[in-house]
Amino acid sequence: MRKVVLITGASSGIGLALCNRLLAEDEELHLCLACRNLSKAGAVRDALLASHPSAEVSIVQMDVSSLRSVVQGAKEVKRKFQRLDYLYLNAGIMPNPQLNFKAFFFGIFSRNVVHVFSTAEGLLTQSDKVTADGFQEVFETNLFGHFILIRELEPLLCHSDSSSQLIWTSSRNAKKSNFSLEDIQHSKGLEPYSSSKYATDLLNVALNRNFNQKARLVSEIQKLTIKGLYSSVICPGVVLTNLTYGILPPFVWTLLLPLIWLIRFFANAFTLTPYNGAEALVWLFHQKPESLNPLTKYLSFTTGFGTNYVKGQKTGPWALLRDFSDLFWVALTLSCLCQHMDIDEDTAEKFYQTLLELEKSVRITMEKSDHPS
C-alpha cells in the first residue's frame, strides 16, 4: 500500500523541494499537494510525474488563510483517502517584511553577529492585516488554518493500525518574547511571524501531549495496538526564497551572497537553497515517530562544503555541545545553533485549550452563516 503524504504550500520554495526530495527517496508515494493556486499546482504535478512516472500525485485546492477553504479542502481529502501517513504543515507567510536598519548595522558589529543573522532576532517587523474570517492574517495562515486542518483530518490521522506524523515548518525566529496568551494573534505587536512560529512550537508540544502519550497509555492498559499521532517541528535554516527576497532588494542580496557563503563555513544554519532547507523534513520522513523527542526542534544545516545534516534543538541550552570539542566552535555554536526551545508545557496546554475554544466559536459562526434563521 502506498504511503500518503499531504503537503501544504507545495507549489514553491521548500514545499516544492520537499516534494522532489520525497519522490527521489520513494517513488511509490502518493503525494497530495494542498495549494491555493490550482493552475500552478497542476504544473508542479505534471513536472513531478514527468520526473517520477511511477509516483501518484494529486491536488487539493486549499488556502490556509481561509477557514472555509480549509474545511472544503479537508472534505475533498477525506473523499480521496482512507488514511494519511504524513501531514507536512509547511505553508506560511511573512507579509511586507521591514528591515530594522539600526538593528541591522548594530548586529553587524556585535559579538552576536552570527546569532542575529541566523535567527533575524530583532531585525524584522511585518505589517499584518485582518482576513475575511476576522483573524490576523499571519496567525491564521501560519497556525490556525493548519490547526483546523488537523482537526478536520483527525479520522485519517488517528487510526489503529499505524501511527501518523504531523511535521511543521517552524523557524529559529520563534521567540517567546513575541508571544502572549493574552494576544495569541499578535494583533498588538510588530513581529507576527515570530509569534506565529513560537505558537507553532507550543502547539507541537501540546499535540504530542494530547495524542501520542494518551495513545501509549491506552495501549498499555488495554493491550491494544493503538498508535499515536506524532508531531514534530523543524527549522529549514536561512533559505533564500520568495519569503526572504522580500526583505531586501535583489541587488542587495547579490552583494551579500559572497559574505553569506563565507559565513556558512562557520555557521551552518545558512542552508540558502530550498533543497538544503528541506533536509530536516526529509530526515523526519525516515524516523520512527515514537523514537523522537516531542520537545526537540529539528534543524537543517549545511556545511561550507555543501554537506547537509540535521541536529536537534532541545529544551536546554547545552543540547548540542556533546558533539563539539573545539572551544572556539563551541563558543560560535552557542551564539547561533544552541538557542534552546524556550517552551513551557503548561503554557502549551493552555494555548491548545484556547485554540479549541476558538475553534468552537468559529464553527458556530460558520454554522450560522450556512443556515441563517
Strand content: 5-15%
Q: Shape from CA axes?
A: globular
Which regions are unreliable across 5 or more consecutive residues at pLDDT < 50? 217-226, 316-339
The major pleated sheet works out as: 8 strands, mixed
CATH homologous superfamily placement: NAD(P)-binding Rossmann-like Domain
- Radius of gyration, CA atoms, in whole angstroms: 20 Å
Helix content, binned percent: 40-55%
Task: Note the run of SSEs as H and E.
Answer: EHEHEHEEHHEHHEHHEHHHHEEHH
Number of helices: 15
In CATH, the architecture is 3-Layer(aba) Sandwich
* Helix/sheet category: alpha/beta
Oligomer: single chain
Task: Calculate the mean pLDDT score and round it.
Answer: 84
CATH class: Alpha Beta
Give a count of the beta strands, DSSP E runs of length 2 or more: 10
Total number of domains: 1
Report on the architecture of this protein:
The chain is of the alpha/beta class and 373 residues long. The chain has a single domain (4-370), classed as 3-Layer(aba) Sandwich (Rossmann fold). It is 46% helix and 13% strand. It contains 15 helices and ten strands. It has helices at residues 13-25, 38-51, 67-80, 101-108, 113-119, 137-152, 154-157, 192-210, 212-222, 242-245, 250-263, 274-277, 279-285, 327-336, 345-370, and strands spanning 4-8, 30-35, 56-61, 86-89, 98-99, 124-125, 164-169, 229-235, 297-302, 308-313. The strands form two sheets. It has an eight-stranded mixed beta sheet, sandwiched between helices. It has a two-stranded antiparallel ribbon with strand order 5-6. Helix 3 (67-80) packs parallel to helix 6. Its EC number is 1.1.1.210, 1.1.1.270, 1.1.1.62. Belongs to the short-chain dehydrogenases/reductases (SDR) family. ERG27 subfamily. Binds to the short form of prolactin receptor. It is an enzyme of class 1 (oxidoreductase).
